[in-house]
Structures are given as C-alpha cells and as structure tokens.
Design brief:
Pathway: Nitrogen metabolism; (S)-allantoin degradation; (S)-ureidoglycolate from allantoate (aminidohydrolase route): step 1/1
Number of strands: 22
Domain Allantoicase: 28-179, 198-335
Distance between the termini: 35 Å
Shape: globular
Strand content: 35-45%
Largest sheet: 8 strands, antiparallel
Keywords: Hydrolase, Purine metabolism
GO molecular function: allantoicase activity
Helix content: under 10%
Structural class: mainly beta
Function: Utilization of purines as secondary nitrogen sources, when primary sources are limiting.
Order of helices and strands: EHEEEEEEEEEEEEEEEEEEEEE
C-alpha cells in the first residue's frame, strides 16, 4: 500500500530518516530511458531545485530544467531507469516535482525496482521482472508530489524505473530508502557515518547555507556548496549540531572532521558525543558520552581524533562552536 503525504509529513517521516539513493551527489546514474527529446533525463537527479527561463529555446523546442519526452507516445508510458548511488537499498517513498511543467506535465507516474548486481543483466529484464514500489498515481502540473509506502520494501534493490503515463515532463525525482551496504567482515574498519555504509543525518540545529546530508557524502567535494554550513550566530554561548545515525552499531576508533573549502567560516571548536539507543524515537532522551572533547579546528583541513571509548555506539552528535561550516564527518570503527 502507498499513500500521499504533505511536504512536511514527507520531511518528517521520510527525508529525516532515509537517503535519496539515486541522487547525483550520491553518484546515482541514469542507465537508460525511452525518450528525452525536449529535456534530458539526467536533470531528474540534479541536487539543486529546478529553474525556468521562458526566453530560452533549443533546436528541440522550449528549454526545460527537467526530463521531457515527445508528444503522442504510442506506448503505455515513457520511462527512465536509474542505477543507485549505493550498493543496494530497501525503498520507502519518492518525491516527484513537476515544477514549471504546466500543460506538458506527466499526468501519472509509477515506480518499480529490480535487484541486479551485474549491470549487463539489466537489459535482459522483462516488465514482469520489475516489482512495483509506488503504484500508478496521478500527478498535477507545476507542483511537488510526495508518495510513501506503508513500510520499507523487504527486498534490497539496485535499480529503479520511473514510468510516466503516457508522456510529458517531470523536473526532479527523489527516491528514498534504507541503504544496505556490501557485506563487510565484522573485523573490517569502515566509515560508519558514510551514506554509502548506511549513515543518515537525522537531526540538525540549522542548515541555512548547506544541508547536513552533505556531511556523509563520499570524497571531499568541490566547493563550499556541498558541505554543511549554518547561519552566523549572534547570541553568546550559541552552538550548532548534527545527530548522525551510524550505518550499524559500532565501536569507533577515529573521527575525522573535514573543513575543506571552509576558510573564513570554519567552526572555532568542535566536540563529538556518542550514544546507543534501540528505538530512535528515544533519541531526544538519550544520554550522551563525550568521545572528542572541545577541540580547536582550522581552515580547509582534515582533523583526526583518536577515540579511546570502547562502547558500542548507534549515533554520534557533532557540535560546532559557535557556528560555521564543515565539509565531511567520518566515523571509523568496527561493527559492534
């Protein structure tokens, strides 16, 4: 069963707990598509909101920041197949944005998924091999739509197929789920904060200039835009913070705070705390243990902190003092 949510419900129930597994900034890819005559399918997974320039035209017609196909599709639906940016994921819901598509928007969509660990096998799939995640649902023009399942899919998928009936345009598509990483030996040291290993930024004090989910991305990014940055604080004693659910309960050995590209706006200090909770609804009542005390940071640098605490942790809380920007947070350890 699936349901339609409001934007706030979707943020609270889906965005704050799961990961957009096809997003470009997570290395999601367009595998194939039925058509992209007016506008390219790759625009669907761009991280920034869509824009419109009504004066701009191309050889194909009016320019749109999204995916738009030809009119008069003779098939049931046009489609795009996405390869996840993570190894696999259980799926829970999606956002379909038809911004600026009015009179040429997709009248309806559905979402299907498949588990194919070898890309060469993908073209062998038939329609019967694609399993429904979100059934065919109507869409309206120039608006965001939020669809969610009652619960996560039992299977962990590697690819998804978005269908629009029969043709038209969609500006952005986000597909959320719970990351299932490649199986690791319990003795392997991995980054449990990484989104690739299931880390999720579940709560944050402020993300005015850059979102907290950027903290968990692979690599060191390309500029300040793909980090986490808060407003300038004006109140004495102010701090900003982010709570990260680790990909699995872990005994941490090292935490890395990277201020890459933040040169005049890095935090003056940071500290890191950890906790272990079985029910994430209890996170606001959790008891936190300091694993990295208040420590100075500097510009454009990876700061490494050795962790001596040997407790199993499910979440960490990174506090920046008083405010500023951080590019990445890493939490290396072994599975508890």
């Amino acid at each position: 069963m699936s349901k339609v949510l409001t934007e706030q419900q979707f943020k609270d129930q889906i965005v704050s707990k799961y990961v957009d597994v096809i997003g470009e900034k997570l290395d999601g890819k367009i595998h194939s598509f039925s058509d992209e005559w007016f506008a390219k399918a790759e625009n669907l997974i761009k991280p920034k909101p869509p824009i419109r320039d009504a004066t701009k035209f191309t050889y194909a017609g009016a320019w749109y920041d999204g995916w738009e196909t030809r009119r008069h599709n003779e098939e049931e639906a046009d489609w795009v197949i996405f390869k996840f940016g993570v190894s696999s994921a259980n799926l829970i819901g999606c956002e379909v944005d038809t911004a600026f598509f009015s009179g040429n928007h997709a009248p309806a969509i559905s979402v299907e998924a498949a588990q194919v660990f070898n890309d060469s096998d993908l073209d062998k799939l038939t329609d019967k091999d694609w399993e429904t995640v979100i059934p065919k649902t109507e869409c309206g023009p120039n608006q965001k739509h939020f669809f969610a399942r009652d619960k996560l899919t039992e299977k962990n998928y590697t690819h998804a197929r978005l269908r629009m009936y029969p043709d038209g345009g969609i500006a952005r598509f986000r597909l959320y789920g719970h990351v299932v990483p490649v199986t690791k030996e319990s003795s392997d040291v991995i980054d449990f904060a990484s989104v690739k290993n299931g880390g999720v930024a579940i709560k944050v004090s402020d993300q005015h200039f850059g979102t907290a989910d950027n903290l968990l991305l692979p690599g060191r990014g390309h500029d300040m835009s793909d980090g986490w940055e808060t407003k300038r604080s004006r109140e004495p004693g102010h701090t900003d913070w982010v709570v990260i659910r680790l990909g699995a309960p872990a005994k941490l050995q090292k935490v890395v705070i990277d201020t890459a590209h933040f040169r005049g706006n890095f935090p003056q200090k940071i500290n890191v705390k950890g906790t272990s909770v079985k029910d994430e609804n209890d996170i606001d009542k959790a008891e936190w243990t300091t694993i990295v005390p208040d420590s100075k940071t500097s510009a454009d640098k990876e700061h490494e902190f050795t962790i001596k605490n040997n407790e199993a942790l499910s979440h960490i809380k990174v506090t920046i003092i008083p405010d500023g920007g951080v590019k990445r947070i890493r939490a290396f350890g072994v599975r508890a």
